[in-house]
């Protein structure tokens, strides 16, 4: 027998792991506490269960004592751990990084950091951004609007050895301009007539979007009828191609107008007034999904007033390069800080979650309208990956139980992905997208950040290894 020299050992081990994942034997998670977020009460947890995964799908879930292991199965003993469906963030933006330089239309730091450089960096850093999502237990995300190169982001995720499933929308069909974001392939395009809207939707449909997105900004003096006609034309064009319409509409009147026009997905809370019966009736008629995005407004306020601080989860699971830049306000020369930011820094505002948004989340939930957890990650102060834990903690302040929050991040997310038959629950035939947690997520949503393993399409990842591979300590 020959001896393998040490210098060959490491590459051979890497090869063995590669082969194990590529030509995987069935995988068995044994002695698991399997969480079923679609169920209520004690039925929501199967104790001492076995989950058998074959290829990229779940083959069997049953009591450990009665579930036989397939021949040659790779067995992972997860005794004392909780297995949940992979988390889904139904509102993210890959063209934004979460740092100070990512939205010059909100805070223009071009004098210090050119926006073109920031966007270039975000493109190059995509493999790491994909990994922070997986490390946080997030196995699917919906990028709900960006430049046309968003479609390349989706393709890159599909090719990547370590990425969540990515669904995308292209450029936003918008009521207003955002010239500072236009580097030749703008994420936001101003539309002034139904005909223009239809033409842009057609251009996007050629790229097979998962959503068409409208940025419905209504300012005083704007003609509601004229704006609604644009949204309706957009909806008709999208629906004719079998694509759902997502709408940004943060005021009650605007949200109701969006619903009348045919919106399928409201990507933010209604934050200016209590949701009324008319809203609820329209939402039910359209069978919408509602995404509260509670943290994102707070993220901006913290970051632009110099009071943003990483949570423990963010220190562990955030992109180290983005984390390093989050404190940049302290080192940027005063004359290069935008006036608005200087004002906020001089008198930092009290940052707290919107009570109206919390009450509306509760109202929507109680009315039986599906809720999908989403962070709006990529916006200033809202990091890709671990910001889901900030968001889910805030959702409990609306009175949702940990089980209900988990339901929104799995079952609700699967609806936002348009993949309810494949994602969001742990059952035979479903895609094997799972997270294995060290602590009980139904006792405290904070435990959702304690993933030991993350499984996507049957492939097993370890968060710590993912983070080390992108430079985390
Ligand atoms: Zn957004």
Q: Your description of this structure?
A:
By secondary structure, this protein is of the alpha/beta class. It has helices at 6-22, 115-124, 126-135, 150-159, 194-205, 224-240, 252-261, 277-286, 296-304, 312-317, 320-325, 339-346, 355-366, 387-396, 402-408, 411-417, 463-468, and strands at 27-35, 45-54, 57-63, 74-77, 82-85, 87-92, 138-143, 165-168, 172-174, 188-190, 211-215, 244-248, 265-266, 289-290, 434-437, 451-456, 459-461. The strands form 3 sheets. Strands 1, 2, 3, 4, 5, 15, 16 and 17 form an 8-stranded mixed β-sheet that branches. α5 (194-205) runs parallel beside α6 (224-240), α6 packs across α7 (252-261) and α7 (252-261) runs parallel beside α8 (277-286). The two termini are 40 Å apart. The model has no long low-confidence stretch (mean pLDDT 95). Bound molecules: zinc ion. Residues 91, 93, 144, 376 line the site of zinc ion. Zinc ion binds next to loops.
Q: Give the class from helix and strand content and strand pairing.
A: alpha/beta
Poorly predicted segments: none
Bound molecules: zinc ion
Shape descriptor? globular
Descriptive terms for the model:
473 residues, alpha/beta, eight-stranded mixed beta sheet, six-stranded parallel beta sheet, globular
Give a quick rundown of the structure.
This protein has 17 helices and 17 strands.
Task: Break the fold down into its secondary structure elements and pairings.
Elements: H1 6-22, E1 27-35, E2 45-54, E3 57-63, E4 74-77, E5 82-85, E6 87-92, H2 115-124, H3 126-135, E7 138-143, H4 150-159, E8 165-168, E9 172-174, E10 188-190, H5 194-205, E11 211-215, H6 224-240, E12 244-248, H7 252-261, E13 265-266, H8 277-286, E14 289-290, H9 296-304, H10 312-317, H11 320-325, H12 339-346, H13 355-366, H14 387-396, H15 402-408, H16 411-417, E15 434-437, E16 451-456, E17 459-461, H17 463-468
Parallel strand pairs: 1-4, 1-5, 6-7, 7-8, 9-10, 9-11, 11-12, 12-13, 13-14
Antiparallel strand pairs: 1-2, 2-3, 5-15, 15-16, 16-17
Helix pairs in contact: 5-6, 6-7, 7-8
Zinc ion (ZN) binds at residues 91, 93, 144, 376.
């Amino acid at each position: 027998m020959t001896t393998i020299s040490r210098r060959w050992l490491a590459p051979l081990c890497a090869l063995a792991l590669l082969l194990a994942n590529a030509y995987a034997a069935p995988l068995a998670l044994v002695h698991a506490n399997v969480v079923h977020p679609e169920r209520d009460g004690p039925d929501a947890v199967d104790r001492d269960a076995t989950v058998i995964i074959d290829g990229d799908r779940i083959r069997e879930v049953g009591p450990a004592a009665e579930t036989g292991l397939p021949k040659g199965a790779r067995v992972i003993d997860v005794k004392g751990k909780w297995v949940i469906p992979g988390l889904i963030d139904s509102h993210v933006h890959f063209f934004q990084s979460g740092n100070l330089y990512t939205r010059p239309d909100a805070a223009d730091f071009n004098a210090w950091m050119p926006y073109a450089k920031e966007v270039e960096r975000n493109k190059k850093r995509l493999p790491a951004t994909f990994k922070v999502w997986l490390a946080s237990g997030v196995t699917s995300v919906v990028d709900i609007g960006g430049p046309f190169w968003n479609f390349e982001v989706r393709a890159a995720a599909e090719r990547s050895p370590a990425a969540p499933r990515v669904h995308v929308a292209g450029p936003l069909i918008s009521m207003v301009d955002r010239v500072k974001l236009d580097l030749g392939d703008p994420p936001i395009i101003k539309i002034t007539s139904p005909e223009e809207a239809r033409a842009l939707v057609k251009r996007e449909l050629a790229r097979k979007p998962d959503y068409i997105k409208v940025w419905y900004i209504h300012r005083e003096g704007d003609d509601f009828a004229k704006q609604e006609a644009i949204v309706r034309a957009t909806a008709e064009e999208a629906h004719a191609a079998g694509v759902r319409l997502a709408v940004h509409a943060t005021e009650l009147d605007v949200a109701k107008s969006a619903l009348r026009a045919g919106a399928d997905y409201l990507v933010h809370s209604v934050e200016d007034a209590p949701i009324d019966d008319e809203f609820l009736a329209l939402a039910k008629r359209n069978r919408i999904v509602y995404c509260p995005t509670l943290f994102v407004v707070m993220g901006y306020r913290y970051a632009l007033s110099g009071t943003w601080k990483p949570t423990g989860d963010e220190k562990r699971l955030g992109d180290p390069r983005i984390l390093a830049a989050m404190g940049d306000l302290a080192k940027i020369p005063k004359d290069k800080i935008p006036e608005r930011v200087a004002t906020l820094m001089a008198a930092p505002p009290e940052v707290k979650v919107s009570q109206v948004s919390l009450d509306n989340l509760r109202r929507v939930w109680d009315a039986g309208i599906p809720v999908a957890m989403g962070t709006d990650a990529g916006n200033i102060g809202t990091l890709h990956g671990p910001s889901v834990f900030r968001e889910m903690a805030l959702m409990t302040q609306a009175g949702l139980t940990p089980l209900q929050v988990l339901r929104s991040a799995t079952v609700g997310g699967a609806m936002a992905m348009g993949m309810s038959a494949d994602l969001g629950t742990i059952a035979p035939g479903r895609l094997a997208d799972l997270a294995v947690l060290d602590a009980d997520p139904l006792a405290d949503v904070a435990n959702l950040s304690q993933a030991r393993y993350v499984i996507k399409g049957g492939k097993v990842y370890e968060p710590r290894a993912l983070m080390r591979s992108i430079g985390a300590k």
